[in-house]
Amino acid sequence: MRTVKLAMIVIVAAAVVIALTFLAVRSPEIAAIPSGTAQKFNASLIKRGADLAALGDCNTCHTTESGKTFAGGRDIPTPFGTIYSTNITPDPETGIGSWSEEAFQRAMRTGVDRKGNYLYPAFPYDHFTLVSDNDNSALYAYLMTRTPVHAPARVNDLSFPYNIRPLLAAWDMLFLRQGPYSPDPSHDEEWNRGAYLVEGIGHCGACHTPRNALGAEKTHQTFAGGDAEGWHAFTINAASQAPIPWDADSLNAYLRQGWHGLHGVARGPMGPVVGNLATASDGDVKAIAVYVASLMKKSPEQQRKDGNSPLLSNNNTSGTGSKPQSAGSQTTAMAESPDDKGAVLYASACASCHDAGRPVPYGGINLALSTTVSADDPRNALRVILGGVPATSGARGPIMPGFSDTLTDEQVIALTQYIRTRFAQKPPWPNVRDQLKTIRTEAQASTSSTAR
In sequence order, which residues have a C-beta less than 8 Å from that of residue 161 and are 6 or more positions away? Predict the structure, then answer.
């Protein structure tokens, strides 16, 4: 009984401290724009805002699969429950049509909406805080000139105590470091431009950095790999597991095309990102590639080791296709045992595309080059095997059928582990069965939801 009383006292005391903190730091409401106010923006400002929206992948999170662009309502899964994105069209009742630029700037910089409510960091204001006032003005101009859509916000489905918004005041005090971005004088203008875009509006760390128990990025493990909607966001620092190191040119091609012959294809949450980047300026995409490539630069010793790799010296490095050659000669032979189910499945379903050196769209990457196969996490490999690589409208890249309906769980596991051990030459993944079960369950739930 005494322990229970003590726990209750601690909980009450913590609640009081949090409440007082909230009252002390609560931001005031910013007055709404008078109804019927017509704002005028010049065309160049709106165009710049459109570019920034593409760089920030805004339409992906703020648009449902069959909904109107920027009208919100998309479910964003988190470890704490489901958050639904908001309507950012200029509808005055359900969107941001009543927001002044001051209110918009505050939301981007501090994560507080027009009415003074704290926003959940699923809206990555911990990155957007780095965006300059001028760029925020451009983004505001673009959004305020979109077609208004009346779409009331959906209620978030969060477990207690994460459904108590005032608690976010404590989160902000612990983890939010307000911007804007400050250039690094030790690097040139292009590098700084890339850093500004990647760290700010691009919010790449939101997916590619692991998070702590409170959902904040682990700043000591920046870009060390993270989770994104059931996919694994690869490590994009010097610990990258890409069999052939990335450089600025290959990154630029990948971000532009959505694939690269020596690295693979962008799928999962990365697919819409490269789709949006295809509309961004050449200079911005190149700057992003330069910055990220600098993060992935390895030590001189590792560079020498990679430079002597037969994968690097015997493959096409132009990114226009996949040539197995030396890597393929090490991996194209069938397994010695005819009882190897994975080898039989690979030979019948995969080899004609991945081992033949065929050009895209029917030629698949030599899997010895695939980061997906070399990574420590099997989720992406499983999702590609199950879901395939559908054709992308308006883009030329690899395509692949999905095997979700044609392969049993045992066959998927056998094929996955065969690909892992043969091409990455690493031990089998330890958690494939559990990951496969999770992915299958998610797919069934999604199908049931769509059917309703």
Answer: 167
Is 15 a domain residue? yes
| Cα–Cα–Cα angle for 124, 159, 450, rounded to 5 degrees | 75
Q: Per-residue pLDDT tens for 355-380? A: 877 777 777 889 999 999 999 999 99
Q: Are residues 300 and 375 in the same domain?
A: yes
Indicate if 245 and 376 belong to the same structural domain. yes
Q: Which two tokens stand for residue 162?
A: 């994460």
The number of domains in the chain is 2
Q: Look at residues 365, 351, 350, 446 and name the one whose alpha carbon lies nearest to residue 407.
A: 350
351 contacts: CB under 8 Å, gap ≥ 6: 332
Question: Does pLDDT of 149 surpass 80?
Answer: yes
Q: What is the largest CA-CA distance in the chain?
A: 76
Residue 319 lies in a domain: yes
Q: Based on the fold, state whether residues 373 and 447 are members of the same structural domain.
A: yes
Range in 57-66, 176-185, 213-222, 361-370 the model is least confident about: 361-370
pLDDT tens digit sequence for 421-451:
999 999 999 989 999 999 999 887 766 555 4
Confidence of residue 13 (pLDDT cuts 50, 70, 90): low
* Co-location of 170 and 227 in the same domain: no
Q: Which two tokens stand for residue 104?
A: 């918009």
Whether 299 and 436 share a structural domain: yes
- Tell which of 175, 203, 224 closes a domain: 175
373 Cβ neighbours under 8 A, 6+ residues apart: 367, 381, 419, 420, 423, 424
CA distance 37 to 250: 47
What does the pLDDT average to over 170-199? 96
Q: Are 122 and 76 contacting, i.e. CB atoms less than 8 angstroms apart? A: yes
140/201 same-domain check: no
Q: CB-based contacts of 421: which residues, under 8 Å, 6+ apart? A: 427, 428
The domain boundary, picked from 152, 175, 198, lies at: 175
Among residues 369, 286, 293, 295, which one has the least CA distance to residue 326?
369
Report how far apart, in Å, the C-alpha atoms of 313 and of each of 2, 6, 423, 430 are: 70, 67, 17, 32
Residues 208 and 135 occupy one common structural domain: no
> How many Cβ atoms from other residues are within 10 Å of residue 19's Cβ?
13
pTM of this prediction?
Answer: 0.86
Give a yes or no: residue 182 inside a domain.
Answer: no
Q: Quick check: helix, strand or coil at residue 228?
A: strand
Domain span at residue 284 reads 189-451
